[in-house]
Amino acid sequence: MARFTVNGKSTQVDVDPNTPLLWVLREQVGLTGTKYGCGVAQCGACTVHIDGQAVRSCAMPVSAAEGKRITTIEGLAQGGVLNKVQQAWLDNDVPQCGYCQAGMIMAVTALLQEKPRPSDADIDASITNICRCGTFQQVREAIHAAAKA
Ligand code: FES
Ligand code: FES
């Protein structure tokens, strides 16, 4: 059994405590916007926020999320209004296939909460998500656009 809040909603799931949070979010909670890429905390496709911090949910047992506040890509927009990172992604045509992008947006949203005007060095240090489509330059431009929004 694990209890936590997902996108503002109290949630309880009956699973093995060692189950990765990613699979609980996708299979028990039904939020499939968070993606599986590598399963070993390398690619960032599975990034969600736990109490406002970006974490790679494939490598986190659900027991570690007990009592915490989880936000997924489905919870970023408020009242139908995209957050400034999502809007910058649209305005800058960032996604290609899109598979990595939910994780990118979650990582970038957490970065901007911590550093509202990140330098290129800050971006390089924080945004280590992998994009097989090579959108890295568009990601960088959209981060700077979101920072100015
Ligand atoms: S699926 Fe979690 S980091 Fe790649
Ligand atoms: S947009 Fe295709 S993997 Fe990043």
Gyration radius (Cα, Å) is 15 Å
Which overall shape is indicated by the principal axes computed on the Cα atoms? globular
Sheet with most strands = 5 strands, mixed
Bound molecules: FE2/S2 (inorganic) cluster
Helix-strand sequence:
EEHEEEHHHH
Beta-strand percentage range:
5-15%
N- and C-termini, Cα separation: 41 Å
- Got a strand count? 5
Query: Helical region count?
Result: 5
Strand line-up in the sheet with most strands:
2-1-5-3-4
Oligomer: single chain
Structural class: alpha+beta
Helical amount: 25-40%
> Which regions are unreliable across 5 or more consecutive residues at pLDDT < 50?
none
Q: What's the pLDDT, averaged over the residues?
A: 97
Characterize the structure shown.
It is a single chain. The protein has helices at 21-28, 84-91, 101-114, 120-126, 136-148, and strands at residues 2-6, 9-13, 47-50, 53-56, 69-71. A five-stranded mixed beta sheet has the order 2-1-5-3-4, with helices on both faces. It is globular and about 40 Å long. Helix 2 packs across helix 5. A hairpin with a 2-residue loop joins strand 3 and strand 4 (53-56). By secondary structure, the chain is α+β, with helices and mostly antiparallel strands. It has five helices and five strands, in the order E-E-H-E-E-E-H-H-H-H. Bound molecules: FE2/S2 (inorganic) cluster (2 copies). Residues 95-101, 131-133, 135 line the site of one FE2/S2 (inorganic) cluster. Residues 36-39, 41-46, 56, 58 line the site of one FE2/S2 (inorganic) cluster (FES).
